[in-house]
Amino acid sequence: MESIVQNPGKQRKVLIVEDNEMNLKLFRLIIGSLGYEVFSARNGEEGVRMAKEIVPDLILMDIQMPVMDGITAMDNIKATEGIKDIPVIALTSYAMKGDRERLLQHGFVDYIAKPVRKDSLIMAAKKVLEKGD
Predict the structure, then answer these.
(1) Cα–Cα distance measured from residue 48 to residue 37, given in angstroms and rounded to the nearest whole number
(2) Is residue 94 predicted with pLDDT exceeding 80?
(3) Rounded to 5 degrees, what are φ and ψ at 96?
(4) Which sequence spans correspond to the domains of the chain?
(5) How many C-beta atoms surround the C-beta of residue 54 within 10 A?
């Protein structure tokens, strides 16, 4: 379990579930720079297990991954007491008409198409993590 703490005063936790090493490093850097505690998992199965362990405030979930894809992982999260209410943002290269709606129907709170733009990721994360602040 990897963790980066940039601002210990802000204990919001973000779990990034992503199998692509370059994307994972980029997402960790961007989210870590916002002052959140960042954790990572390499596939959906590991992501579900880590979500149960750390109970993050937000999960960024790739859709296409080995072992367990993001939709199956999301179904597992939504079926598990204690983590079912964690907001999950889909990160995907799916950009076909209807994909956004399909993912939102699965319970994702937002959808970000790859390649991910830094400002889109920051806005989506802040929208979820800072509402009510």
Answers:
(1) 18
(2) no
(3) -80, 155
(4) 3-127
(5) 16
pLDDT band, very low/low/confident/very high, at 27 (cuts 50, 70, 90): very high
Q: Determine the Cα–Cα distance for residues 69 and 80; give it in Å rounded to an integer.
A: 17
Contacts of 108 (CB under 8 A, 6+ apart): 61, 74, 88, 89, 90
Mean pLDDT, the chain, as a whole number? 89
CA–CA gap between residue 111 and residue 52 (Å, rounded): 22
Using an 8 Å Cβ cutoff, are 46 and 19 in contact?
Answer: no
pTM over 0.85: yes
What CATH number does the domain located at 3-127 have? Answer: 3.40.50.2300
pLDDT of residue 130: 85
Closest CA to 124 of 81, 83, 92: 92
